[in-house]
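Lecture 7, part B: from sequences to assemblies.

Below are the input chains for today's worked example.
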Amino acid sequence: NAGVTQTPKFQVLKTGQSMTLQCAQDMNHEYMSWYRQDPGMGLRLIHYSVGAGITDQGEVPNGYNVSRSTTEDFPLRLLSAAPSQTSVYFCASRGGAVRETQYFGPGTRLLVL
Amino acid sequence: RKEVEQDPGPFNVPEGATVAFNCTYSNSASQSFFWYRQDCRKEPKLLMSVYSSGNEDGRFTAQLNRASQYISLLIRDSKLSDSATYLCVGLSSGSARQLTFGSGTQLTVLP
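Predicted structure of the full complex, as structure tokens:
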């Protein structure tokens, strides 16, 4: 049981490049989310999914796309990277009960030059 | 106004001290609350859930006051290993049921 896995751990992009951050969970969780964490800003929700085939926008969705074709996978796509997207990205998953623990992946550190 | 607001700290306390963190929330419909712990450059991990009656887990005590929309975390007999950032978290109601995170309170326990 690996929990929540994310790849890559580190990435450097040039402005305008696109890339996909991978996220997978093996706990059969319904809910999956992507957050970004910036100094002094806390965790901000980018996109989330309440089940396969269902996604919705969070607090800061601009410049990002997601899809949820399976329960396990929830990739985050940066369409055209900008320096403002330099951040640490966390994927998370949890079950549907009110007091379910949310588990986070180890994070992806992204630098956009 | 942020939905979940925390005392940002930093808190620097000696080993063995008792320290308390406070958190307020603006969404009265929030269903559940949690404290997460985040070590430097690591992912957040659940420390404890918060119940209306107050709950204790070893040296940690969490309390929720719905009337005042206020949550607290008390750490007794602080250890060096308690040094971390503590995140106050609320779970919204509705079908989306997303977690909203405070910005965190940084704690350093000094030898």
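Note for the exam: Chain B has a mean pLDDT of 90. Keep this in mind when comparing with the next example.
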